[in-house]
Amino acid sequence: MKVIFAICFFSLAIFLCLLPPDTAWSNPPPPSSGDRSQQEDRTSLQPPFGDDLLPDIDTLMKPNYLPWGPLTSGPFFTGNANTVPVGSFFIRSAWSDNLMFGQGLNLSSMTGESRIDVGLMKNLEMDVVVPVGINSQNSAGTNFQRITEWGVGDTVIFFRYNFLLENDVYSLWHRPSLTIEPQFVLPSGKYTELSPTANGLDQMGNGTYNEGLYLIVKKSAKPFRLFFMVGDVVQNPTTVGANYASNNVTFTPIPCTPTGQCQSGRFDMVDGNLIDYSFALEHVLNDDYGLGYILEIVGQTQTGTSLVFGNATVPSWSYLWVAPSIELKYPSTRRMAVTWSLGVALPLYQSNIPQMYTPFGMATVWYNGVFGYRGE
Fold first, then answer.
1. Of 176 and 370, which is predicted with more confidence?
2. Which parts of this chain are annotated as the region Disordered (predicted)?
3. DSSP character for 37?
């Protein structure tokens, strides 16, 4: 079944990549008055590092330029609908720490993600994320002795295809940028043969091959930018054993029947569908330095049923966070730039998971190739 899902998602991505350009990708109209008259009309620019050998492939490769779209760090949890141009890429190091307190629990579950995004062709990019987890606990479960475990988590591979580009970056009431993102998760993290003395902290993955599909929306209204992302992830069943935790958040007891008879040893586990949703408002205060602030609303819900595999054998859960952050770009040249951001996610609502407070930050190194401007 997982093979069928993978084939379907890849087929969808390839089909959309082969669609011919249409008016949805036409150049945006130039500013008409006021602030717009002072902006540089980048729709008429040649690539920043122009090359006479490239004009024949402009239609296939050259991105559409927007008259306003400064490079910033951007939202932490919410994806960006604009894609990386061909020949450009960025490398990102992002860290977040789920801090859980109360009811005899004092747990830090830190995740560091190394990510690379590469432009494959016009409107299409490929992204690879490899996380490293560092879990530590000092609570009643460990006799108040601090224990720490670390390891590689589950690898995420996804593609972003920007099939519609916004045509006016000054007005909120014109069309937005729209992007689809098929996503695949490979179970590279440890999830079995967990040590009883580690209290589950040595688990770094779910052990499932996951397939997801996301829709990403972006709309500019200078000096603000709005981002929205929603996605559904199907998590394939797997066989697990003692000390396994569902999504490394909710510890899962060995399944028991209503009469009290419980399984022992290894057992088959089915996660419910995982629904992601987030919204971000970015206010760019200074274009040159990518200085600004962002307010995000972030949520996840794991349902009690899998779209494909039936009823889940682990508890359902959900949460909703508010996540303010600040951002800065420095240093910056035409060829390379570094962006920074720092923030914290605070719980608005949580169900069936411990109370969490999540500080986060990221640093991104951007490399602009021959086509330079990212159009974000």
1. 176
2. 26-52
3. G
